[in-house]
């Protein structure tokens, strides 16, 4: 009975997260089996974002510009191959589940949206003339890593028990993994590494998540939430 209760509680707490992960795999399957180019219009193209921004500033925005701005979120639901979606969903599960545990489902959804957008904007800012499409949830994944770092710095968190690790680890040790990943992205940006990885999206998502939980998050958020 206790095992059943824990399982039902986990499903209830992480329902939206598990649904999101399932949706990501379903979308990837449709990308693989569907028409080759159906998802192209949902990817971020920095040059399109820059052009639409110029239209917005000049007051001559067109319907197509709204579609371009919409890709700042839609790109996060698309992936190139099974490895891409698999690793992104693994790390999303680890860090987003911790955010759900500490802040609740509402903040989980908000952080996903804002960090995905922050990652897309950062990628476009770093290469405003780039015409290569960008896709993947890694900006939002890094956003949850940054968000967890912000919580670990500002609150007394219990040791998280993170699969596949066999025992709980101190929160700052887990948060340090996120910092190391972000430092690698900073390094690759500084040296101009041409590896077709959206390092700007990673950094943008990470900084956005860190900002939300360390500065913008109300001090009482999540502390009295019943799961």
What does the model show?
By secondary structure, this protein is an all-alpha fold. It is 68% helix and 0% strand. The protein contains nine helices and no strands. It has helices spanning 2-13, 15-33, 46-58, 63-74, 82-103, 105-126, 138-154, 171-190, 199-216. The longest helix is centred in the middle third of the chain and has 22 residues, at 82-103. It is globular and about 50 Å long. The two termini are 19 Å apart. The model has no long low-confidence stretch (mean pLDDT 86).
Spatial extent as radius of gyration: 18 Å
For the biggest sheet, the summary is: none
Distance between the termini: 19 Å
Shape: globular
Derived from helix and strand composition plus strand pairing, the structural class reads mainly alpha
- Tell me roughly what share of residues is in helical segments: 55-70%
Number of β-strand runs: 0
In N-to-C order, the SSE pattern is HHHHHHHHH
Rounded mean pLDDT score: 86
Low-confidence stretches: none
Strand content: under 5%
Q: Helical region count?
A: 9
Secondary structure layout plus pairing:
Elements: H1 2-13, H2 15-33, H3 46-58, H4 63-74, H5 82-103, H6 105-126, H7 138-154, H8 171-190, H9 199-216
Helix pairs in contact: 2-5, 3-4, 3-6, 5-6, 5-7, 6-7, 6-9, 7-8, 7-9, 8-9
Fill in the keyword field for this structure.
single chain; 227 residues; mainly alpha; 0% strand; globular
Question: What's this model, at a glance?
Answer:
The protein is built from nine helices and no strands.
């Amino acid at each position: 009975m206790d095992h059943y209760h824990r399982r039902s509680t986990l499903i209830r707490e992480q329902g939206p997260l598990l649904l999101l992960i399932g949706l990501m795999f379903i979308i990837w399957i449709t990308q693989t089996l569907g028409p080759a180019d159906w998802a192209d219009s949902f990817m971020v193209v920095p040059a399109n974002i820059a052009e639409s921004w110029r239209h917005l500033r000049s007051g001559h925005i067109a319907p197509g510009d709204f579609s371009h701005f919409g890709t700042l979120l839609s790109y996060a639901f698309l992936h190139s191959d099974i490895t891409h979606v698999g690793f992104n969903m693994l790390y999303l599960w680890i860090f987003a589940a911790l955010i759900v545990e500490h802040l609740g489902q509402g903040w989980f959804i908000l952080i996903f949206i804002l960090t995905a957008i922050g990652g897309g904007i950062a990628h476009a800012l770093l290469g405003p003339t780039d015409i290569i499409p960008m896709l993947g949830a890694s900006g939002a994944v890094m956003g949850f890593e940054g968000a967890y770092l912000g919580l670990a710095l500002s609150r007394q968190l219990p040791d998280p028990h993170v699969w596949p690790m066999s025992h709980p680890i101190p929160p700052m040790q887990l948060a340090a993994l996120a910092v190391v990943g972000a430092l690698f992205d900073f390094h690759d940006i500084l040296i101009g590494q041409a590896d077709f990885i959206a390092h700007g999206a990673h950094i943008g998502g990470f900084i956005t998540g860190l900002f939300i939980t360390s500065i913008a998050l109300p001090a009482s958020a999540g502390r009295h939430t019943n799961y």
